[in-house]
Amino acid sequence: MKKILFAAGILTLAACGSYQSKTAIHKTKKEDKNFDYSVKFAQSITAKDLGKHLFTYASDEFEGRNTGEPGQKKAVEYLKNFYKNEGIVSPLGGDDYFQEVPASWLNSNSRRGSLKDSENVVAFIKGSEKPDEIIVISAHLDHEGVKNGKIYNGADDDGSGTVALLEIAQAFNEAVKAGKGPKRSILLLHVTGEEKGLLGSKFYTEQPIFPLANTVTNLNIDMIGRVDARHKGNPNYVYLIGSDKLSTELHTLSEDINKKYMNIQLDYKYNDENDPNRFYYRSDHYNFAKHNIPIIFYFNGTHADYHQPTDTPDKINYEMLQNRTRLVFHTAWEVANRDQRIIADKAKK
C-alpha cells in the first residue's frame, strides 16, 4: 500500500509539471557562453527518482543495514550496481567500489558490540582541469538493523542522504557526458559504521584514497528527508552546521549559492557552539573537520521517528528531499568549478 500511495503521489506531481525529465535537459537550444549549466544538470535530480531509490534502499529487504550484517551487504551491492550501471568509475579501479574496513579495526575503534567486516562504497568523477583537488560528498550507508524482531529501516537516517548522493553523482555524470564536467574531482563517499561511532569516515580519513591535503571540502548529508516540529509551518528549510567553522569562503559561498538557486531557509540553530545536542560532533563530517578540511553538514533535525522502526520511506517529504539535494549539488558545483580553491582561513592550529 505504501508503494502504491507513493507512486500515485509522484504521478500527480509529474502530471502537474513539477519535475523535468532527465532527457528533457538535453533538448535545450544551443547554449551561449553565459548559460548556467548548474541549473541544467540540477534538474536531473527529481523527487520521483529519489523516491524510487529510497523505497528500495530503506525497504525491509535490507534489514536495517546494520554494519557488517547481510542487509548491509545487500545495500552496498545496490550502491555499487548503481554506479556501474551509470558508468561512474571507482577510484580504486576496475570493479572494486569497496574500501574494505576490517572487523579487527572496527572493533578496536568501537565499544558497540562485536562487529563484522564492512566496507565504505566509493565512486569517482574526475575533474577536467584540477583532477588532484577533491570534493568529498558523503553520507552514511548503515542504520540500526533489526531489534526485538522489528526492522529499523532508516529512511531518513540516512537513506535520504544516501539516495541524494546517487542523484548528485548522476547529475555530475550527465555534465561529464555533455562535455561540461567539473574542473575539480568529485568523490562520492558512502561510509559504514556511522551508528557505531563515525567509524567509516574515521577509517577513510586515517587511510584516505586521496591525500587529505588535496581534499578541498567535505559536504556531508545526514538526514534531509523530513520536516521537524520547529518548521512544521514552513518546510522549506535545512539546518546547516559547520559551514563557518573553518572557512569564511565556504560559508559565504554556501549562502550566496542558496540565494541564487534555491532560496531555502538556512537555519543555523544547531551551529551554535553552546547547543547541547552537539550535532557538529555527531556525524561523519567531523572526522574531516578534525583535519582542518572545511565542511558543511546538511540536516533536517530530529523527529519522533528518529532511531525508531517507524522511520520509513512513506514519511519522507520528497519535494524537500529534492530541493535540499539540489542545494548540495549547486554548492558542490560551485566549489568544483571556481577559479581558486577555497581556503581554511579559520583552521585550528
From TrEMBL:
Residues 120-330 form the Peptidase M28 domain. Transmembrane segments: none annotated. It holds the Pfam family Peptidase_M28. Signal peptide: none annotated. InterPro entries: EF_Hand_1_Ca_BS (IPR018247), M28_fam (IPR045175), Peptidase_M28 (IPR007484). This is M28 family metallopeptidase.
